[in-house]
Amino acid sequence: MRNTKKCKALLVINPKSRQGAEAQLDDGLARLSEAGITVERLASKGPDESRQAVRDRKDELDLVIVGGGDGTISSMAGVLYECDLPLAVLPLGTANDLARSLGLSGDLNEAFEVIIAGERQCIDLGVVNEHYFFNVAHLGLGVKVSEELTDEVKKYWGVLSYLKAFFAALTRVKQLKANMSVDGVHYRLRSIQMAIGNGRYYGGGNVVDEKTRIDDGKLSLYSLRPQTVWELLTLAPLLRDGRQHDNKRVFNAQAERIDITTGRKTMKIHADGEPVTQTPAHFSVIRQAIEVLAPALADNEIPD
Known about the structure:
With 304 residues, this protein is an alpha+beta fold. It contains ten helices and 18 strands.
């Protein structure tokens, strides 16, 4: 296991996420330099350029630091797995759900201290139709929420942006009919929302399942049966904390492989807030796929 002391790192950062954090970033990078960590800063124009930069430098790098929100970090998942490089997270997004799953509070100064400390853990990766994701993939209502969660909404609503997007999405969602295979067991159901989680958190601190960890080797699925807005609102506290087990309006499962078809009608799938594919969908998990700089992951002790 490589230590961060006297190592070379590539910093990939989303310039849109940097606003208001320049002083903290500069101070943190100075502290990394004092600790013997040489950082190359990449002025990337987009995910493709960032991924190629990692491939071009993979033999000389010890670490990749990604600064941004969950979408920016998720866009680097595949290349980090491909190149077998450790990941450090600088939480600069609206939700920072991966940071939550890694036990990070979201404070930028703390994130730099974690990098300097050099403690490492191995986490899983979710895969849907050959697309990698850290947190959660959605069909139905979750996709509509992502579509409503524009940069403008994030800018003006801040931490309340997910709530704003949720209520806007409710007016657009329609039920879907799905056939599922969950580790070989078959189900048919109607749903307005399906979520398949690799990580613990999604949507600004919602918990996909209270038993889920990002290193447990399982995917956690829940599906909401069609219901009224009032029923959804009464269910919301349970969904927020991942305590929806045994509720008759929610189907729950944990598995290593999940296959979903939606008949003749294809459904969009978003993962970590970004559009990635559509049904039919084949979900799987890669155990201990990526090494991350993070404190030890304890059961249900990840900060809100």
